Amino acid sequence: TDSSHFLENAVRMMVSVLSYNINNFIRTLAFPEKAKGLQIQSIRLRFFKIAGKLIHSGRRMMLKLSTHHVYQDEFFHILRQIQSLSW
């Protein structure tokens, strides 16, 4: 941990647990079968560390992702699955 204070470490731990649970929830509901067994480092590398550029156009903001992303088919599959979830 980064701090010598108990409360700060406790909050950091709670945020880490929440992040872990959200990751597992999304993995269960949205990931393709071949990607469900990935470890968190692999998920970060494949789906979050993607080169992109934020574009301002009129009143809209768009995120342009790299077209050379190796896992873009899996990325967009997961994105569509998340968008199709309804509560």
Automatic annotation (TrEMBL):
Organism taxonomic ancestry: Bacteria, Bacillati, Bacillota, Bacilli, Lactobacillales
All copies of domain Transposase DDE, residue ranges: 1-86
Protein name in the entry: Transposase DDE domain-containing protein
InterPro entries named among the record's database cross-references: Tnp_DDE_dom
One Pfam family, short name: DDE_Tnp_1_4
Annotated source species: Trichococcus pasteurii
Taxonomic superkingdom: Bacteria
